[in-house]
Amino acid sequence: MSRSTVTKIGFALSLIITSLGAMSQAQAGGAYGPDTCKVGYVWREAYPGDHTCVTPEQRARAALDNRQAGNRVSATDRTYGSRTCRQGYVWREAYVGDTTCVTPEQRARVKYDNARANGRYQ
């Protein structure tokens, strides 16, 4: 990946994070009922209806992982079916049946966020 591509991705992520921070403030008023996140958290939206409260950075990461999903599936290995990840990736498991391929570190972070979800609602 070229340096300019990395810079463009970094800039895009910073714009996303900034806009998510504004959304988090809107959520702080309780506008989303029982799924309203505490200040500093936003919905992850790794899949439709995903109201797990995470940091804006983790929401941006979920969006990036979703966009890259097709590039991370093995074209030849079918050990775990048609959604077998390329080497170096594992299923995200944000919900039962989530086969989006992510790094092992990101799957661990998703597990961490899922375990703390109830304490992040208003």
Structural notes for this entry:
By secondary structure, the protein is mainly alpha-helical. The chain has one domain (3-120). It has helices spanning 3-27, 56-68, 104-115; strands at residues 42-43, 53-54, 90-91, 101-102. The strands form 2 sheets. The chain has a two-stranded antiparallel sheet with strand order 1-2. Helix 1 (3-27) packs across helix 2 (56-68). Mean pLDDT is 85; it is low at 24-29. Residues 1-28 form the signal peptide. Keywords: Signal.
Estimated radius of gyration:
16 Å
What gap, in angstroms, lies between the N and C termini? Answer: 41 Å
User: What is the count of helical runs?
Assistant: 3
Task: Please indicate the count of domains.
Answer: 1
Mean pLDDT: 85
Biggest sheet, strands in spatial order?
A: 1-2
Number of strands: 4
The profile of the biggest β sheet is: 2 strands, antiparallel
Poorly predicted regions? 24-29
The proportion of residues in beta strands is: 5-15%
Structural class: mainly alpha
User: What level of helicity do the residues show?
Assistant: 40-55%
The H-and-E topology, N to C, reads as HEEHEEH
Shape: elongated
Provide the descriptors you would attach to this structure in a database record.
3 helices; mainly alpha; two-stranded antiparallel sheet; signal; 41% helix; elongated; 122 residues
